[in-house]
Design brief:
heterodimer; A: 301 residues; mainly alpha; 4% strand; B: 254 residues; alpha/beta; six-stranded mixed sheet; four-stranded antiparallel sheet; 10 helices; 10 strands
Chain lengths: 301, 254
C-alpha cells in the first residue's frame, strides 16, 4: 500500500507544480522557471527543519514565502520580454538556481553527524516526517491538504475580479491596459503567486523524499510543469489536476510495465490527447456539463 | 465656452520616415462632441492611440485637464478619465459580458489598502450597481452570462462601448464605432452617443459615416496626410473646398 501512498505524494507535488504554471498561463505568459522555484522552496524548507529545527508548517510557509519573493524579483526583468524570449529567460533562471545548489555547501554539526546541503552530494537527512513518526499515509494526506488549500484559493481567485483581470491580460494586453489594467502589476503578481505555490510544493517534496540534490530540479521537470495546465486546459484548476493524474498516474506509472517503450508511447499519447482535445482535457464545454451534474453550483454572481 | 478638457499642442508621431501625425493642434471643451474625419491613413487612429498612451509622442504635448500626460502608461490615463473603443473590436472574447465590464470597473478614488482590497476582493455590491447600469445602457442585460465572443457584431460594438463607460471616463474616444453597422444600428448609435454626452462625458468621434458625423457632432476637425487641414462646425466643413478635395482625392499634398 505504501507504494500508492508514495505515488499519491508525488501526484500532489506535481499538482502544485502544474497549478503554479496555471496562474501564469492565465496571463498569457509561459514560464520554465518552475524547477528553480521548486528547488528554492525545497532547500529553504529543508534547511529550516533540519538545521534550525523548525516544525514543518512554518518551514513550508517560509519556503513558500522565500520562493515568492525570488519570483517577484525575477518577474520584473523577465516580464519585459515575452513569448519565446521569456521562455529562454526563465530557462536560464531555472538552470542558474540548479547550478547554485550544485555549488551550495552549508553544513552544521547535529550531534555527531553533519547535516545540510553539500553541493553535488545533495542535501540528505531531511527527516522531519520519520523522526516525528508520520506514516506514509499521513504524509500523503498532509500533501493533499496543501493541494486542496491551493486549489481552493485559485478556484476562488478565478471567480473573483482578479480572475477576470488575469484572463483579460492573457487574451489581449492592449485592450486590458486600455480599460485601466496595470499589466506589470498583474503579471508580477501572477509570477509571485506562482513562486509561492511552487515553493510550497518544493518544501513538501524535500520532506517526503528526505534527500534532494540539484539533479532533481532540471529543465525536464519544468517542461512537465507547463505540460499539466496546457494539457488540462485553462477553464478551471481541475483541468490541471486531471492532467497530472493522466500524465503522472497513467502515463508515467501505469505504463511502467512497458519498460523502455513507455517513453515512446508517452509522447504519442500526449500528441493524441492534444489533437483530440485541443482546448485541454477539461475544456469549457466539459466543465459546463460537469457543473450541471453537480447540484448547487449555479451562478454565484 | 466651458473649460478645456483636452489639449493637443503640436503633436507629432513618426513611424520611420512616415509622418503619421504632423504638428496637430486640437482643443476639446468639456461636454462637446468632436468629429475627427479624414481619408484612410490620415492619422485619426494614431491620434487616438497617442492620447491613450499606446505609443509615445515624437514631438509635442498632450494636456488633459491642464496636466501634461507625458509618458503616462495607458492604465494611468484610464484612471485619469480617458476611455476608448477600438476600430477592430477588442473584447475579451473568452470572458462573459459581465466579466468584460468587471475588468473595466472604475478605480477607487483613494489609494489605500482598504480601497485596494475592496476593488480586488469585494466591492461586489458597488460593482454590481455600476455593471448593471452599463448593461442596461448597452441593452445587454439578458446576455450578461454569455461569452463576449459569442455575441453578434452589433452586440459586441455595444459591449465595447459599455466597457469603455464602465471606467467612468470624462473623455471617450470612439474609433469608427459605426463600421459594419446598418442604418437602424447607426440611428441607435447616434442616440447612444448623445446620451453619453448628456452624462457630461466629452466625446471624440472618428468616423467615415458622414451622415452620423454631421448629425451628432458639435465641431469637426479634418485630417489629411497627418495634418489638420480644417476645423469648424459641421456646416462649415461641408462647405470647405480643401476638405472636399481631400475626400474626392483630387488634391494630393495640401
Amino acid at each position: 500500500m505504501d507504494f500508492y501512498f508514495g505515488l499519491g505524494q508525488t501526484l500532489g507535488v506535481h499538482t502544485l507544480l502544474g497549478l503554479s504554471v496555471y496562474i501564469v498561463l492565465l496571463t498569457g505568459q509561459l514560464t520554465l522557471a518552475q524547477a528553480g522555484f521548486l528547488a528554492i522552496g525545497a532547500y529553504v524548507a529543508g534547511m529550516l527543519t533540519v538545521i534550525s529545527g523548525w516544525h514543518i508548517v512554518p518551514a513550508l510557509a517560509a519556503g513558500s514565502l522565500a520562493t515568492s519573493l525570488v519570483a517577484c524579483v525575477v518577474a520584473f526583468p523577465a516580464l519585459r520580454v515575452r513569448g519565446l524570449t521569456l521562455a529562454v529567460a526563465t530557462i536560464a533562471f531555472g538552470e542558474a538556481v540548479r547550478l547554485f545548489f550544485f555549488n551550495f555547501d552549508y553544513q552544521v554539526w547535529k550531534g555527531d553527524i553533519q547535516v545540510g546541503p553539500l553541493g553535488g552530494e545533495g542535501f540528505r537527512q531531511i527527516r522531519f516526517f520519520p523522526e516525528n513518526g508520520w506514516s506514509t499515509l499521513e504524509v500523503m494526506l498532509f500533501v493533499w491538504a496543501c493541494v486542496a488549500l491551493v486549489m481552493a484559493a485559485l478556484w476562488w481567485t478565478d471567480r473573483s475580479r482578479a480572475g477576470a483581470v488575469l484572463r483579460a491580460v492573457g487574451e489581449d494586453e492592449v485592450a486590458a491596459q486600455s480599460v485601466g489594467v496595470n499589466l506589470t502589476a498583474v503579471k508580477v503578481s501572477a509570477m509571485t503567486a506562482s513562486g509561492a505555490i511552487a515553493g510550497l510544493g518544493g518544501g513538501l517534496y524535500a520532506h517526503y523524499t528526505t534527500h534532494i540534490e540539484h539533479a532533481n530540479f532540471t529543465l525536464g521537470l519544468a517542461t512537465f510543469a507547463i505540460a499539466y495546465p496546457i494539457l488540462g486546459g485553462l477553464s478551471s484548476v481541475f483541468g490541471t489536476l486531471a492532467a497530472v493524474l493522466f500524465i503522472q498516474g497513467f502515463l508515467v506509472e501505469g505504463l511502467r510495465f512497458l519498460g523502455d517503450w513507455r517513453n515512446l508511447l508517452f509522447g504519442a499519447l500526449i500528441v493524441l490527447a492534444m489533437n483530440l482535445r485541443p482546448r485541454g482535457l477539461l475544456d469549457a464545454a466539459t466543465a459546463a456539463r460537469l457543473k450541471r451534474l453537480l447540484p448547487g453550483s449555479g451562478g454565484a454572481r | 465656452m466651458s473649460a478645456t478638457l483636452l489639449e493637443l499642442d503640436r503633436v507629432s508621431r513618426r513611424f520611420g520616415g512616415v509622418r503619421a501625425v504632423d504638428a496637430v493642434d486640437l482643443t476639446l471643451a468639456e461636454g462637446e462632441i468632436l468629429g475627427l474625419i479624414g481619408p484612410n491613413g490620415s492619422g485619426k487612429s494614431t491620434i487616438v492611440n497617442l492620447v491613450c498612451g499606446l505609443f509615445p509622442l515624437s514631438a509635442g504635448r498632450i494636456r488633459f485637464e491642464g496636466r501634461d500626460l507625458g509618458a503616462q502608461p495607458p492604465n494611468r490615463r484610464v484612471a485619469a478619465g480617458i476611455a476608448r473603443t477600438f476600430q477592430s473590436i477588442r473584447l475579451f472574447g473568452q470572458l462573459t459580458v459581465w466579466q468584460n465590464l468587471w475588468v473595466a470597473q472604475s478605480p477607487p478614488a483613494k489609494r489605500s489598502a482598504a480601497a485596494f482590497a475592496a476593488r480586488w476582493l469585494g466591492g461586489y455590491r458597488r460593482a454590481r450597481e455600476a455593471i448593471g447600469e452599463a448593461l442596461e445602457f448597452a441593452g445587454l442585460a439578458g446576455q450578461r452570462d454569455q461569452l463576449a465572443g459569442s455575441l453578434t457584431f452589433g452586440e459586441q460594438r455595444r459591449l465595447e462601448l459599455a466597457r469603455a463607460l464602465a471606467a467612468r471616463p470624462k473623455l471617450l474616444l470612439l474609433d469608427e464605432p459605426a463600421a459594419g453597422m446598418n442604418a437602424t444600428e447607426i440611428a441607435e448609435l447616434d442616440e447612444r452617443i448623445r446620451r453619453v454626452r448628456d452624462r457630461g462625458i466629452t466625446v471624440v468621434l472618428i468616423e467615415h459615416h458622414m451622415e452620423l458625423v454631421m448629425s451628432v457632432t458639435d465641431r469637426i476637425a479634418v485630417l489629411n496626410f497627418g495634418r489638420k487641414i480644417a476645423e469648424g462646425s459641421p456646416g462649415e466643413i461641408q462647405a470647405h473646398g480643401e476638405v472636399r478635395e481631400a475626400y474626392l482625392g483630387a488634391g494630393g499634398e495640401s
